[in-house]
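2024-03-11 09:14:02 INFO queue: dequeued item Bifunctional lysine-specific demethylase and histidyl-hydroxylase, len=425
2024-03-11 09:14:02 INFO validating residues
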Amino acid sequence: MASSEAGGEDPFGKAVLTDEFWQCRQELRPNHVPRGASNLPEAISLDRLVAALDVGSKREFGTTAAYKRGEPCVRENWPLAYLDNATLSLSDAERHFPALMDLCKALEANFGFVSAKLVVDPPESTGPPMVADADMLAVQVWGEQRLSLIRSLQGLPISAPRPKEMLALVLRPGDVLYVPSGVECRTVPAPEGGAVARPREDKSSGCASEISRSQSKGTQMPVMYVLITLQSPDQSLDASLSKFLVDSLLNKSVFSAETDGFFRRAVTKRTLTRPSAEGRATLDEELRRSVGELFSKTRASDLRRHFDARMETLRREQLEGADEVRKAASKSADSLTTGSRVRVARGVMCRCDAGSTKADFQRGGQTLTLSIAPTASHLLNRLADGLPHVIESLPCEDALERICVVQVFLQKDCLEIVSGEHTNR
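2024-03-11 09:14:37 INFO prediction written
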């Protein structure tokens, strides 16, 4: 139940909701819009991502999740899950990022209600193919993805010809990809000799530009993208009609007393038993009369009003949820950021060689040996000098891994946050 009105004056709507988009949507074909959301990568910084994942992991929200090979990855917290090479996701991401809320609002006039999910894949992630269960827009934020889109194999007999590739592309920061429902999206390995194709010139700042520079050198970095759901299964015509009929049947004021009473007693022990010929004729007559009244009071205008009311409720809950997220974020203003200063905790000595898979933390006569990834060893080797360091200055190719490592060791009391002291960079 979506309209093909113009995208209005909003730049995102004008760039994406073109005549080509509506034609592709009608023909169930994907559509690639280079730089359709060019401002989004700059709007989602690493610090804001970390704060959003922290808030989303709180019990009252529960929107932060982690997955490995398509299965839930249950760890103590999301930093540990990411360090375990899990994909992170943040549902209702528009409630955390005003820029995403703006994108969703720009699409409301055409789709009623629009929501977003943010996904972060660790370097060299090998997740299963994604089959869209609803029409969606994929917006690339960090890094690049080589994608191949085909019609899903689900439901096809074994003897049926395999679907042909519908589209192959490299999705770069700011690019938008329309993926119709039922289309399978696969990540294609990069050609030998580099992580991804060399990106276009990136003039953005922050983590996005750091990732772009690192990938141009062939290093491994995370990939982040946003999935914007345009029309969920609950917004389809059949689901909307079903919900409308159920609400109508539950409302005693819609039908006559006889019809309302029939619908409320239609499936009972008495009606399920085999009636007599006379009783069967009476039941058939009541059925014809009640169904006729149901048809006469099922009008397209009422269905549209019911649908609009449902969408309005979702939009109101969306804005209220964004307010709750802002309040929770304000109470967690002390979240770790890339500008935070950290050092080895007082009374603790750290020993970690660059490239090692273990780190030793000694307090008094006790030594705690922890297994680490070699990529984290350079960071801990730098911190072993015992001096305060700004997190973003610590050596680690993956900017998100860097802050995850620090957060995990802070929770283990191996590191501590410092302020107002001399800081090494």
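2024-03-11 09:14:37 INFO annotate: Residues 79 and 408 are 7 Å apart (CA to CA).
2024-03-11 09:14:38 INFO item closed
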